[in-house]
């Protein structure tokens, strides 16, 4: 049993050492992405800004890539979240997600990266947003 615990600690430490985004970063990044999308919709419909809470998170894959010369990851998975707006709560169950997270210099913070339409087909443009971590 002790060996299993030791192996688990080493694996988790290796993930952090290699710069993989952990669950807290992925949850915060997904919350930010959902919040931005829902806020845009609410603004168009002239509704109150919603509150989003990611409740369940299942990570299927984390693929390394490069965004703007910095290391990043494409994260795929499923999430269940709660949307609260105008006093009403709605549960959104097991929806697939695709998230792009970019590691910042000194590996202290992460940014949400969102692909943008580009006039050049050979080069992807990105907008990035700081991910607030509590």
Automatic annotation (TrEMBL):
Protein name in UniProt: Lipoprotein
Organism: Synechococcus elongatus (strain ATCC 33912 / PCC 7942 / FACHB-805)
Lineage of the species this protein comes from: Bacteria, Bacillati, Cyanobacteriota, Cyanophyceae, Synechococcales
């Amino acid at each position: 049993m002790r060996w299993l615990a030791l192996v688990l600690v080493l694996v988790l430490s290796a993930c952090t050492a290699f710069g993989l985004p952990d669950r807290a970063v992925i949850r915060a990044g997904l919350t930010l992405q959902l919040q931005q999308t829902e806020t845009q919709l609410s603004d168009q419909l002239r509704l109150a800004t919603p509150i989003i809470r990611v409740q369940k998170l299942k990570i299927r894959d984390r693929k390394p890539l490069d965004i703007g010369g910095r290391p990043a990851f494409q994260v795929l998975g499923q999430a269940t979240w709660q949307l609260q707006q105008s006093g009403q709560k709605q549960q959104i169950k097991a929806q697939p997600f695709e998230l792009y997270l970019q590691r910042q210099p000194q590996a202290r913070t992460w940014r949400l990266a969102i692909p943008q339409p580009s006039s050049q087909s050979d080069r992807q443009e990105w907008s990035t947003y700081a991910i607030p971590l509590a």
